[in-house]
Structures are given as structure tokens and as C-alpha cells.
Amino acid sequence: MKADGVEQGQSFLRRGKKRRRLLPGLTVGDGFMRHPFDVANGVRTSGLVAGRHLKTGHRHDRHGTAYYAVAPSVLQALLRRWRRNRPVAPIEEFTFIDMGAGMGRALLLAAEMPFRAVVGVELHPALVRIARRNLAAWRAAGRARTVTRTVCRDAAEFNFPPGPCLVFLFNPFAAPVMRRLLKKIAMSFAERPGELDLIYVNNEQESVLEQQGGFRRLYLGQVMRSRSDAIADHAIMANQPDGEYTSANYEDCSIWRWVG
Fold first, then answer.
1. Engineering a disulfide at 111: which of 73, 92, 144, 228 sits with its beta carbon 3.0 to 4.6 angstroms away?
2. What is the per-residue pLDDT for 4?
3. Which of 211, 212, 216 is nearest to 183 (CA)?
4. CA atoms of 105 and 113, how far apart (whole Å)
5. What pLDDT does 236 receive?
6. HEC states along the chain?
7. pLDDT, tens digit, for every residue of 52-89?
8. What are the Cα distances from residue 219, in Å, to 78, 82, 153, 232?
9. pTM greater than 0.85 (yes/no)
10. Number of domains making up the chain
């Protein structure tokens, strides 16, 4: 990373520490630790916020799981596997869409690839603000290869752009919202078979996808974290005061394609 990019990232972190109260899970007293990804890149994507602390007043609040950022090595491995599964078009024609984008770690990683565009969809406004600062720092450091943005919206209400789309899910919500999202996809892509692929990490709602007609599974398996990601995630989880969450050396994952 360029030196001025690191300075920009550190500057935005200082601005983000203003007087807004941090969400539970984002303070040292709550067990907060910075992931090496943030330390190396001067961004802020670390922290673990339980779903009960992510209230916005929206009717889907009760279906949110938690905020925790995907291990970089897991997402990168899945993107390589996805590209080997013969998408309908070159990556340059795909829009990458992170549903439940949080602070935007997946967006930052995707922005380094030649997607047509990268979009984050996040319901909680505090996480959206942080993600936008992260993206601004990424652009200032010259790391973004494509247009990137984050919208504050419910995933099931998002209007998909024209052209092929790659949806990313890191287990952001429970079955009721997943069903609504899949129905929206089925309606939006009814006349566009093959134009939507879906990467699902920590795939707790796999059965919901299996029950939704029109999807074909391309991959199901365990994707290993890199050694450095595994060490970092184990340390972060072990530092949580209530021990509510745990971490393994892998993520259960799947890749799906809308075939209509």
C-alpha cells in the first residue's frame, strides 16, 4: 500500500472515533481486537457485534445474526473457485453485491478485482458509515479497481442492477429474510437465467436455498482459513467476555447459480 494511503486510513480511523457511541462489541471492554487485515491496511472492519445489538427499528431486525467480517483467505478462495465454475460472462461484466455488508471487508477485497461494480447492502446505519469511510480510504490508497458503494437498505428490498450479478452472503440473516431475498432474486432474474451466482459462507440457511426452485448448487464444502486468519479469528473469539461465539479453522460454504 502507498504510504499516503496508510495515512489516509489512520486519519479516517481517528475521525471515526469522534463522539458517536460504539456498538457493543466494538470496545476493548467488550473484547474488541483488531484483525491483522485492519492493521496492515489502515481500515476498520474488526469487531463482533451480536445480532441483538444491531437494532434499527426495521421489521427484519429480529432476523439478523451478528456482525463479524469474513476471513480474507476464505473469500479469496471462494472467488477463485467461482471463476473456475464458468460464470455466464467475464468477471468484468459482473456486479459484486454483499448482502449484509457490515463494515465492508468483503467489499474492499472485491474492489481489488476487476468487477463491473461492487455494492454493499447493509441495514444498520452505523455499520454503513464505517463501511463508507473504509471504501474512501481504499480508493485514496489506490486499491479500488472499480466503482464501489454501500447502500443502507434491507437486503430483501434491494433492486438488482442490469447485467450479471454475484451475490455474497456471510450468514447475515435467518430463514425469513433469506426466503424473501430468494423470492426477490427469482422475480428479478426470471428472464435472466445464469445471470446470478451466489456465494454463501457459514451457510446455516442452506436448506432454504435447497427448497427454492430455480437454483443449482455448484459447490458445497469446507473452505480452510489461512494459518494467519485462523490464528487471528481464534484469538478474537477467545477474547470475547461471554464466550458466545467460537471459530473453527474452516467455514462451511456453498456456491449457487440461478438457472430459472
1. 144
2. 47
3. 212
4. 14
5. 93
6. CCHHHHHHHHHHHHHHCCCCCCCCCCCHHHCCCCCHHHHHHCCCCCCCEEHHHCCCCCCCHHHECEECCCCHHHHHHHHHHHHHCCCCCCHHHCEEEEECCCCCHHHHHHHCCCCCEEEEEECCHHHHHHHHHHHHHHHHCCCCCCEEEEEECCHHHCCCCCCCEEEEEECCECHHHHHHHHHHHHHHCCCCCCCEEEEEECCCCHHHHHHCCCEEEEEEEEEECCHHHHHHHHHHHHCCCCCCCCCCCEEEEEEEEECC
7. 888 888 787 788 888 999 999 999 999 999 999 999 99
8. 10, 9, 29, 27
9. yes
10. 1
Nearest to 15 by CA among 37, 41, 43: 43
Residue 85: per-residue pLDDT: 96
CATH assignment of the domain containing 43: 3.40.50.150
Q: How many residues does the chain have?
A: 260
Residue 156 · residue 61 · CB < 8 Å: no
Burial of 219 (0-12, 13-18, 19+ CB in 10 A): middle
Q: Which domain holds residue 86?
A: 3-258
Ranges of residues in the chain whose predicted pLDDT is under 50: 1-6, 8-9, 12, 16-18
